[in-house]
Amino acid sequence: MSSSWMQRRHEELEAILGLAPVVAVVTIDDAAHAVALASALVEGGIRAIEVTLRTPAALDAIRAIAENVTGAVPGAGTIISGSDLHAAERAGARFAVSPGWTPDLLDAVAKSALPYLPGAATASEAMWLLSRGYRLQKFFPAEPAGGIDYLRALSGPLPGIRFCPTGGVRLETAPDYLKLPNVVCVGGSWLTPSKLVQAQDWTGIAKLARESAQLKK
């Protein structure tokens, strides 16, 4: 892939990750809830919504959000294969996120128009991705992999990489992550707790989104 292609995708992804200090990470079991859920997030100020491909409803949820929620920027998470990537793109996803990466997946990304956030959990993985032009990476699973202290340690030797830590990050700990110079935003699953989704408490979700959108980077 050309350096100009990588630069365009980087700029597009940077703009998406910069919409708010938090990217919503959501798992949707019922696509019928997708529009109301995404609308509540957008109402609270969270526009980038990563729908994980962990349920049969995920692609339909992405499609519903893309077609019906003004202001939402739907993405697809848990992308682990080229077929996942292509299905997400067809559904209307505007960015893609992986817990890690594989050579085959990166080959598929090179043929896609989607901005892509690959996952890394070690310095070696982060360095390899950087050597391929990926300056924005997902740090996953953030808390089990070392959390704030680990990311702080990486900022010195790897200043060219910025991360979106995801996995175990909470509203209470997000501010400490966001203070780090190598963190562009955080991924948050706390915005859509299953209890509120099952109760269809969209007002409660909008409140959590509003609190999260007010965090400072």
Descriptive key words:
217 residues; alpha/beta; TIM Barrel; 4-stranded parallel sheet; 3-stranded parallel sheet; 9 strands; globular
Write the layout of secondary structure elements.
Layout: H1 3-17, E1 22-26, H2 34-44, E2 48-52, H3 58-68, E3 73-77, H4 82-91, E4 96-97, H5 103-110, E5 116-117, E6 119-120, H6 123-131, E7 136-139, H7 147-155, E8 162-165, H8 174-178, E9 186-188, H9 194-198, H10 202-213
Parallel strand pairs: 1-2, 1-9, 2-3, 4-5, 6-7, 7-8
Helix pairs in contact: 2-3, 2-10, 4-5
Structural notes for this entry:
- The chain has helices at 3-17, 34-44, 58-68, 82-91, 103-110, 123-131, 147-155, 174-178, 194-198, 202-213, and strands spanning 22-26, 48-52, 73-77, 96-97, 116-117, 119-120, 136-139, 162-165, 186-188.
- The chain has a domain at 3-118 and 183-213: TIM Barrel, CATH 3.20.20.
- The mean pLDDT is 97.
- It has 217 residues and is of the alpha/beta class.
Short summary of the structure?
This protein has 217 residues and is an alpha/beta fold. 44% of the residues lie in helices and 15% in strands.
